Amino acid sequence: MAIGVDIEDIERFKGKSQDFLNRVFTFHELEYCLKFSKPESHLAARFCAKEAVVKALTALDIEGVSYNEIEVFHNEKQCPQIRILKSLEKNIIFQLSLSHDRSKAIAFVTAEEQ
User: Is the pTM here over 0.85, yes or no?
Assistant: First the structure.
């Protein structure tokens, strides 16, 4: 099992260019985040999740997954989940926890080989 964690200043995600958003986030993530009056907190949390996933995958010797190939979505219970949009050499099960307040966003990820 491997873990990853990341924390970001939400302020960094205010007014990001569309080019940046398209490089980092999937269509579905942008659709979800941009419906809020303050999308930067949701964008920051998802960015943290992507960073945490990369850290956990690196610990499992899996590299080459880009940010826009990592998608955060909500399951039927509205819990955040991770989906990798490319084929990996190993079957990985992820657990994700996201949180944010007025100024910071954080994500914690566990990744375990099946």
Answer: yes
